[in-house]
Specification:
PEBP-like_sf; PEBP; 33% strand; Phosphatidylethanolamine-binding Protein; protein kinase inhibitor; five-stranded antiparallel beta sheet; 184 residues
């Protein structure tokens, strides 16, 4: 599987420099577009995590920015420029619940009791854009594809639950990833 985007640095609209109308609770909430290509033809569902490993020295753990599970591949559009690549459009995180209700999004690190944010689902169970406090950070988007949906994952699942379900799914999921940079 190949994961790509039209950028290597997350554009301002999806990150720390996002305009006020692209934020909720002070957090950038408009998810960035990307492409998924060369998926195993037997796969029917996508799942992903978007995390910040460079946050470990800052806060003591890898910050979770976005998690998605059980997204039916058939519900996605192909990229107009590449008939094989699936296109994840901008602002997909906020649009997905209405467009594809069977897909679920998990909690991000804003949901942590140690962070102290309110319980607004728009902030704690959707995309949170990069906002590195100390220097530019490298963020990792990891995508998996499976033949069957992962059972037992509901809206607001935790990332570790997704990883356990991937391990227990009875197949070796197709997978790929990419790094992007978030500007400080």
């Amino acid at each position: 599987m190949k994961i790509s985007a039209d950028f290597t640095v997350v554009p301002d609209d999806f990150a720390k420099a996002a305009a006020p109308e692209y934020r909720a609770g002070g957090v950038p909430v408009i998810s960035f577009p990307f492409y998924v290509d060369e998926v195993n033809p037997e796969a029917r569902y996508l799942h992903w995590t978007f995390t910040d490993p460079d946050s470990i020295p800052v806060c003591g753990f890898e910050w979770i920015h976005w998690t998605v599970a059980n997204l039916p591949i058939d519900a996605l559009m192909f990229d107009f420029n590449d008939s094989h690549a699936l296109a994840i459009p901008p602002d997909f995180s906020r649009q997905m619940p209405a467009m594809i209700p069977e897909a679920v999004q998990g909690r991000n690190s804003s949901a942590s009791k140690f962070v102290g944010r309110d319980n607004d689902p728009a902030v704690i169970m959707r995309y949170n854009g990069p906002q590195p406090p100390d220097k530019d950070h490298d963020y990792y988007l990891h995508v998996w594809a499976t033949k069957e949906p992962l059972p037992g994952l509901n809206q607001g699942f935790w990332m570790n639950e997704l990883l356990h379900k991937l391990r227990e799914c009875g197949e070796a999921p197709d997978q790929g990833g990419m790094f992007v940079t978030g500007k400080a």
